[in-house]
Each structure stands twice: as C-alpha cells, then as structure tokens.
Amino acid sequence: MLGPSLAVSAILFSIGVVGVLLRRNAIVIFMCVELMLNAVNLTFIALSQQLGMDGQVFVFFVMTVAAAEAAVGLAIIIALYRHRDTVNLQNINLLRG
Amino acid sequence: MHPFLQSIGYDHWALTALLLIPLAGAVLIPALPSALAKRVALAVTLVELIVSLGLWWAYDPSGAPFQLTATAPWIPAWGIAYRVAIDGISLAMVLLTTVLMPLAVLGSWNGITTRERSFYGLMLVLTSGMIGVFISTDLFLFYVFWEVMLIPMYFIIGVWGGKGRLYASIKFFVYTMFGSLLMLVAILYLYYNAGRNAGGGYSFAYEQILRHASVPGGVQFWLFAAFFLAFAIKVPMVPFHTWLPDAHVEAPTAGSVILAGVLLKMGTYGFMRFALPFFPAVAFNPMVSRVVITLAVIGIVYGALVAMVQPDFKKLIAYSSVSHLGFVVLGLWALTIESTQGALMIMINHGISTGALFFLVGMLYERRHSRMIADFGGIARLVPAYAAVLTLVSLSSIGLPGTNGFVGEFLVLLGSFRTHPVAAGIATTGVIFAATYMLWALLRVLYGPVDKKENEGLTDLTPREYAILVPLLALIIWLGLAPGAMLRRMEPSSRAFIESVQGHAPTPEVARVEPR
Amino acid sequence: MNPLHGTAADWIGLAILLPFLGFLVNGALAFVRPEDKRTVSLVGVGSVAVAFLVGVAVFLAILGKHPEEAYVRSYWTWISVGDLKLNAALQVDRLSVVMLLVVTGVGSLIHLFSVGYMHEDPGYARYFAYLNLFIAFMLVLVLGASFPVLFIGWEGVGLCSYLLIGFWFTDRQKAAAGLKAFLVNRIGDAGFLIAMFLIYRNIGSLDFATVLALAPRHLVPGGPVVTAIALFLFLGCVGKSAQIPLYTWLPDAMAGPTPVSALIHAATMVTAGVFLVARAGVLFAMAPLASAVVGGVGALTALFAATIGLKQWDIKKVLAYSTVSQLGYMFMGVGAGAYAAGIFHLVTHAFFKALLFLGSGSVIHAMHHAYHHTHNHADAQDMRNMGGLRSHLPTTFRTMGIATLAIAGIPPLAGFFSKDEILASAFARGSDEPFWYLVWLLGVAAALLTAFYMTRLMLYTFYGPNRTGAAEQPHLEESPKVMTIPLVVLAVLTVLGGALNLPHVGTLHHWLEPVTGAAAAYGLEVPLSVGVEVGLMLFAVVIAVVGIRLAMTRLHPEQLVSAEKSPAEHGFAKLLLEKYRVDELYDAVIVRPLVWFSRVVLWKGVDAGAIDGAGVNGSAVVARALGWVGSRLQTGQVGAYVLFFVLGALAVLGALTR
C-alpha cells in the first residue's frame, strides 16, 4: 500500500504547489497551502507503517501548526480585505523593491 | 604611588571606575527632567576628571610597563576577559579625554536645545567608549569599545549636526566601519594563530598576542594592512581623510571637539599599541615604511595647502588636523625616541589646541550662525578678549616656540631628521604653510574694518566661555614651557615601543655621533 | 667654576622677567583700565630701564672678573627626551652682554620716545604691552644658551613684530603687512629649523657651548655638512634680517608706528641674523663657501636696496631700504670673517638708525599735528609735503643731520669707523680670493648711493620752501621734550660710538675675542698693512663726500612740488619708485600659483573630485546601482517569490540526489 499512498500525496502536493503559483485569490492560495500540508501528513502516515510511530506524532504537530496558521492567516486576509477591498494578490505588492 | 592614593586603594578601582562613572551617568540622565541633563552631565564628567587626575600620581614611570591592572573573567570559554591597564601613552590619552569632556559639556550648554537628555547621555557613553579604547589590554574588549564609541558619535553628528548632517554622519560611519571590520577579521586571525596559550586554550590578551604575533610572512602583510587601514582611516591619513572635513563641519561644537581632540588620536594610538608592535617586520619593511612616510609628508603639506583655501573656518581647522596628524605618523615611523615622544606630544597638543579652536569657532557660530570666514572681518575691535584668545590658540596651533605646539613639532622633526632627513626636511615646510592658513584666516576674521553690519552687535566672551578657554590656555602655556613632567611619564612607554619594534624590524640607519 | 658665579650675572633672568611682567601688567591694563596712561608709561618704560640697569650690572661684573668662557645660568629643564637635554638656560658672555646693553639701552630710549609719540592713541596700553613683550623676547634671543632657546626669542620677536606692524589693525593693509612679515620670516625660520636638525644629527647637541666646541671635531671643515648647516642658518638670517630674496617684508613693515620701526625694524630685531652668524661663527668659519654666500648676498642687498632708496618719497620707506642696505653691510662683514666688525656696525647702526627713525617719527608727529589742525588728509610721510622744516623742528633737524653724516661715513662719527672696517676686511680677503674684491666694490658703490639718498632725504625734508600748506605751516612745531631727549642722547651716542672700536685700538674687537676667537682660528681675517688701511679710509671719505656733494648739486628742493601736484615718473626712475616690482613678481610667480594650485587642483580636483567624487561617492553610487539591480527581483508578487522558492528547492533537491 505504500506506493499508491505516496503517489497520492505527491499528486496532492503538486496540485498545492501549482495552485499557489497560479491562483490569484488569497483564500484559494491559502487552501492550496493547506493542501500541501495535508499531502505531507499523508506521507508521514504512509511511511509510519514501516518506520514506526514517530511520523504519526509529527502529523499532530503539523495539524496544530496548520490550525494556528489558519487562524493567523485568515485574520491577515480579513485585515487585508478591509483595507484594500480585495483579496487578489496581484494588486498587493507592498514588498516591491 | 602617593600614600593618599594608596590608602584609598586607588590602583584597584580607578580604571574600572573611569569606565563605570560615565555609564552610570548615562543611565541616570534619561530618568531625570530634561533641564537637569546638562548639569548632571557636567557633574559626572567633573567627577570623572577628578578621579582620573589621580592617575597622574598613581602611574610610576619607572615601574612595570602596564600598571593599575584590573582583570575579571568575561567569557572564559573563548578566552575573553575584562583586562584593563595603563602605560604612559594611555595615561596621556585618558587624561586628555577626561579634561576635554567637561569642557565639551560646557561648550554645548546653549548650543544644544533639542533632546538634551539623549545628547548628554550619548556624550557619557562616548566617554566610556573612548576611555575603554585607551585602557583595554584585551583585543576583544578593545574592539568592543572601538565600536561602542562609534555609535554615540554617529548620533551626535546625525541628530544635532548642521544642514548636511546625514551625509556626514553616514560617511563617517561607513568609512570607520569599513576599516574596523577588516581589523576584526585580523584580530580573529591573530586569536586563532597567536592567541593559543600553553594550556591549549585561546586568549585575546594583548600581551599573549603580542608575544606570538609573528605569524607566517605572507599573511602578516595582510594582517598589517587590515590594522593599518582601520587606523589610517581614523587618523586620518591622506587619502582616507575625506570623511573628516564633512564630519567636523556638520558636527555640533562638542562633537567636533571630541572628534578632533580624542577620536583622531585613536588611529595613531592604534598604530603605537597594535599595528606596529604586532607586525614590525612589515611596518618597517623599507617599501612599506617609504609608502607610509610619503603619505604622512603628503598629508602634512597637502592638508595645510587645502586648509589655506577653505572658505569655511571649521573646514579649515579640519584640514589642519590632517596636517598635524601627518606629523604624528611621520614621528612614529621615524622610530627615534625624540620623534616618538614628539608624536605623543602632538597628539596631546592637537587635542588641546584644535579643541580650543573648535570651541572658539563654535562661540562665533552661536552668535552669528555662520562659520564662513568672509562673513566676519574686523571683529577684533568689538571682541578684544576673544581676539586675544583666538590669536594665542592659533599661535599654539602653528607651533610658535613657547607654546605646546612647538615642543611636539620640534621633537618629531628633530627625531625624524635623524632617520629620514629628506622627509623631515619637506615636512618642515609645513610650518610655513601652517602659519599661512592660520594667520591668513585670522587676518580676514579679526582685522580690517568692521564692514558687515551684522557683526556690530557681537558680544565678547562670557564667564562660561572663559571657563572653557582658560584651562586650555593654561595647558598650552604649561606644556609649552615645561613639558618635562609629561615627557617623563611617557618616555619609558615610548622606549618600550621602540624596543619592541626594533627587535624585529630592519633597523633604520641612524646617522648620529654621540657627544664625547 | 665660572668666575661670574655669585655676581650680578646670576640675576640675568631679571632682565627678561621685568619686561615680561611689564607685558602682563600693561596687557591687563589694556583690558581693564586703558585710560590710565601714567601707570602704563611708568610700567612700560620703567621695566625696560631697570632691565638696562641689570645689563649694566652684568657688564660691570664681566669687566671685573674677565671670564674666558660663557656663564650659563640654567633655570629649569625645558625639553628632555632621550639624549636630548634642553634647559631653559641663559648665557652671559661678552657678545650677549653687548647685545643686552644695546637692546635695553636703545630700547629704553625708544620706549621713552613712544610716551610722547603714542600719547593720543587709544591703544596706548596695548602698544606698551607689545613693546615690552618684544624686549623680553629679544633678550631671550640674545641671551639664550642653546639654539632652541634662541629660537623662542627668534620667533617671539617675529610675533611682536607681526602684532606691532598690524598695530592699527582696523586698516586691513596694515594688518596684511604684519602677516606678510610673519610669513616671510617663517620661510627663514624653516631654514633655521633644518639647520638645527642638521646640527643635532651630526653633533648630538644643541647647546651653543657644546656645539661650537665639538663642531671642529665632528664636522669636516669645508665639507658638505657644515656648509649645509651654515647655509640653512643663513636662510633664517635672510628672513629675519631682510636680505635678498626675502627682504620685501621690511619696507611694508613701516605700516607700524614709527618708534616700532626704530626699535624692531632698525635697531634690534632685524640685526638678529647678524648676531646669529656671529654667535655661530665657528660653523660659518668652517664653511668658506657659505661665508662667501653670506658676504655676497650682503653686498648685493646693500647695493640693491640702496638703489631703491634713491627714489622713494615716503620718508620711512627711504629709511627702510637704507636699513636693508646697512644690514647687507653687516653680512658683508660677518661673511668676510670679521665678526667683530659686523657686531660693531650692528651697534653703531642701532644708534644712528634708531636716531634717524625717531627723527622721522618726530617729523611725522609734527606733520600729523599740522594736518590734524586743518583736517587735511594729505600724506604726512611724503617728503614732497615737507620741506623747510629746519626752522620748525630745530632739534630734530640737528640730531638727524648728525645721523645722516654718520651713515654717510663722515669721520669721526660712529658710522665711518664701522663701515670702513667692514669694507677693509672685505678688501683684505680679496688678496686670497678675488671674489671679495667684487664684494668690496659693491659695498663702495652702495656707500656712494647711501651718502646720496640720505642727503636727499635731509634736503627734501628740512631745506627749501615749505610745501605742507599755507594753513598748516604755522602749526608745525617741535616735538615735546620726552621725544627730543632720546634724540639728543642717541645723537651723542652716534658721535661717540666710533670710540668703541677705533682702528688699531680695537676695544670691541678685543672685547669679543673670547667669542670670536674660535672662528678666527680658521684664519679668514687677513691683516692689512697700515698704508693700505689709511688709503682705504681716505677713499671711503672721498666717496662719502662725493655722494653728499652730488646730492647737493643735483637735487633742487626749491623746485619740488607737493605730492598731489607731482608729475609721474618714467623709465628707470619709475622702476625704482616701484621697487623693481619685486612684490608683484613674487605675487605672480609664487603666491597666486600656490593659492590657485591649492584651491583648484588640490581641493576641488584631488580632494572633492578624485577622492570624494570618484572614490567615496563613486563606491556609494556603485553600491546603490547594485542594490537597484537586486531590487528589480523584488516584484512584490507573492507568486513570484514562491516560484523562486520552488525553483530553489528543486535545485537543492537536484543537487542532493545527484
């Protein structure tokens, strides 16, 4: 079962990466980031069958961090929307040199 | 040591106290009302001065090279310790600093009107930094103080300076940082190669590194170059001098005084303490020595000539510093006891005379808000006491015999002539140009008719200004007529410097016949 | 133990201390109570007069004890480094005591004269403060026991000269004249410094006693080292004593008050160079080439300055060029190895030139008064505005007349003997080296011109009709007693001064022998036969008489018109009037190019252009440009950042899995 599990997680991760790279909407990008995190979680669980329980512990770590990130990230996006009336990242380039 | 000083255990706490007193003041000042800041700063610097005066008697010229040693572990794992001590050279430099600081505070009394607490706090931090540089005998500690003193100066120029203060302060900072980072690299290299002691650990201790600094040939050159650059920028030697006129012109009076009076001396002090004793074989390599001496002589003449044509009085004095410090460098590289002692005397004299000149220009600036020579003329009739003091200080600056300036210049040239007659001969023409720029400026500022209406209301010196100038005038005359007490205290250290260098250096031919 | 120990010579320091205290008191009074002229005069004149008495006491002590060696009185250690030990020490010997007496004696008289001359000046106290300070420094110069101590006085008198020339500093030109004097002197001082370095390098000491004793052992006679030492020392003398090419400051120095011109720029300070050559006589005697340069420059200056003196209208300018010329004579003497003759002329010149300057001061004082009455702003120093003053200023006329005869070289006045001795010694050297005949010839020509221009000065000032103005003429009056008494005293000295060193008696010559003896051992002085000596003397008298005659027959004071109506000069006369345009030459060749070079090339070009512009700000521009290029990568698009990140991660992966 290891092969298909890793394949699924690789596909999910790639979808996430492509989503982050191509989409403009902050919410969607945010969801893609979550997708990547969960792809990694899937990898951890798949490999924990062979390598022991450590991977499953890490999954809990990742989920906790993801929850915290969701809270902070969504708050930032909301703040952004209030200021700019948009969540389209193409219009937000404060970091430009 | 004097029994009184002995009885209060002066030698144990004096140096540490000199570092801590200003820091304590700097911590205290922000907690006080703004109006009190300058009074507290004055009090603190005066206490500092009184404490430091004890060094004069506590230091025994016939004793060990380094005295009043204090040591405490700091970061033992890396061989870093709090190590401080003084020899005759640092004695003179510390006293110069502590004498100038209260005067600098007095000189800022009316000139600094914004953010007084920060200003005086920074001044006190600066004091600690400067004294730390002069008394550290641990390379790491030295480097920390070297950088510590940079920061307050940066703010003093950048916040309380004139119109171009930002450009000047950044230039000052970048120039100095550039040199000192290279020096840090060199210090670390020395630490790993020369700092290894018998027990297998490493140490930043000065004497440890001094004993083992003779690292392999090729590297030595680059290490010397790193130290040299750091100090040459600070001196400043031509062509690394262009930060100085800007910094001097833009800095507030106190900043200029400290910059000229003390900070520049750190360059030449660094040469004497570190660069030359660590790498004598490179420093006195005929090629290197020739280049340095040429730069020094160029600095003497070049600084004087450029000073001559400055329209801005402060800039004129700044360039004159380049010229004066050229004499110091010449004296150090000439490597005779006369020239070394003379170089030390110039370091002291320049602090006094140029400090006084900056005060005097500052006093004019406070009254007229101009530093341009052309904006004045004929003011000797309106402010006779000011004119008299300015004349006397200028004469000291150009080295009139009987004032302090002569003693230093004479000794440097006399000594340098023994080993480098041509360079010393060219340098001697500096005395002509010095008289030219200084007295020509006096002519345009003090003499002639009063042809500017704005000047007619000028008022003569106030008691506060007398309080600043009289001590400096007293020092000018004292060191001019009886420099013996000062020379005697510095001579063993100068000798030690020469001997430490001569052991390794290709000895220059000293043409000299002993009197029979 | 020196026999002078325990005598008045122990109090020699008092001679310096008193005028210095006078300076402090008068300086303080200038700020606190400038109107208290009585105290100022008392302190000013009194301190110098008492210093003179100290000098007399020291002189008597030497007379009684006959010390062969100099007595050095050391006060404290001045500079002590390594083997160099310089004491603040004074030296009493026969040379320094002569100078001490001249400086304080003539100095007292001139101080006294100043009481009258400067009485109306608001800067009275300041004036006396400077004058006292000058005396103090001058005494340091003549009494110093080592080169550096002498140098304190050397530069100190330069400082006082600077302050006194620019005494009326609200006039920018006068202040500038002071600056010029100081700077030109500094050129010479740089030479002096180098000479000291050379001496120290080769002999290892700077005390006179040691240097002069060891010089014959450490230096090769006629060698390059001693020649260089002597020439550099002479460069110092050229500056201080206004010889070619550094003489230009002295005529300008006449901007100062006239008593200052008498004291500093005629009698004492400017003769310091001659004193120095005599003091370091051994060094010069060991360097015949340098001595020839000294004599040659002296002779050339004597003639050159005398020609300029022929055409000047300003009474003080005539005397100024005359001083330059007479200083040239002194250098001829010391260059020829006749140190005593040089010092002799120094002393007699101090008498008669001080007298001439004070006399001119008296004339100018009277002219000022007259013009002051009628609010006329004509030039009070221009001889074309004078004429016929003989009847108005009888004492001044008579005393100046005596001085004129003395400087022209009419026996038995002082100037005759001293000048004759110098010319004779130059002539005598001619038998060794023909070069000295040329020197002698230049000296004779200068003597002829001297007699001429001095007679001219007297004719135009005191004879003929008065040209001051009809309204002013009744106000021309003789100066007060306080001014005429010094004139009379100096006139007496001018008449009797020759007795100091009569030919074949040679009192001064013998007196100075302990000092000049070491130099004389080099045998530069050649004795003359009595016949030649008498012949030269007669010849000198003839020259002087011819000069005076020529002036009296060729010049017509009655045809002269006042300054503003005078026609312009042409040709060579114009060139003389414009002083050969040497000042303009120096300005064009040295001063302006130097300032231009400093401003345009060094400051704007090298400093602001190359180092700051290209170097410092250039590197800042490069750093900024690199930063700008880097900042183009920062698009602000999060997507772009992620892309870079992913590409970077893939690159790392690729590198790791390779």
Structural commentary:
- The complex is a heterotrimer of chains A (97), B (516) and C (658).
- Chain A has 3 helices and no strands.
- Chain A has 97 residues and is mostly helical.
- Chain A is elongated and about 50 Å long.
- Chain A starts with a helix and ends in a 13-residue tail after the last helix.
- The model of chain A has no long low-confidence stretch (mean pLDDT 89).
- Chain B has 516 residues and is mostly helical.
- The longest helix of chain B has 32 residues, at 337-368.
- Mean pLDDT of chain B is 91; it is low at 507-516.
- With 658 residues, chain C is mainly α.
- In chain C, 72% of the residues lie in helices and 3% in strands.
- Chain C has helices at residues 12-32, 37-65, 94-117, 124-143, 147-165, 172-203, 208-218, 224-240, 249-252, 258-267, 272-279, 281-285, 288-309, 315-335, 339-374, 394-408, 414-430, 435-462, 481-496, 507-511, 513-520, 530-554, 571-577, 582-632, 638-657, and strands at residues 71-81, 84-92.
- In chain C, β1 (71-81) and β2 form a beta hairpin.
- In chain C, α14 packs antiparallel against α18 and α16 packs parallel to α19.
- The chains are: A mainly alpha (97), B mainly alpha (516), C mainly alpha (658).
- The interface between A and C is medium-sized, with 14 and 13 residues.
State which percent range the strand residues of chain B make up: under 5%
Largest interface: B-C, 63 and 62 residues
SSE run of chain B: HHHEEHHHHHHHHHHHHHHHHHHH
Helix/strand-derived category of chain C reads mainly alpha
How would you characterize the largest beta sheet of chain B?
2 strands, antiparallel
Number of strands of chain C: 2
Q: If helices are DSSP runs of H or I spanning 4 or more residues, what is the number of helices of chain C?
A: 25
Strand content of chain C: under 5%
Percent helix range of chain B:
over 70%
Low-pLDDT runs of chain B: 507-516
Distance between the termini of chain C: 99 Å
The spatial strand order of the largest sheet of chain C comes to: 1-2
What best-fitting shape of chain C do the alpha-carbon axes yield? Answer: globular
Give the fraction of residues assigned to helices of chain C. Answer: over 70%
| SSE order of chain C, one letter for each helix or strand | HHEEHHHHHHHHHHHHHHHHHHHHHHH
Helix tally of chain B equals 22
Termini Cα gap of chain B: 37 Å
Instruction: Give the biggest beta sheet of chain C.
Output: 2 strands, antiparallel
Mean pLDDT of chain C: 90
Shape of chain B: globular
* Category from helices, strands and their pairing of chain B: mainly alpha
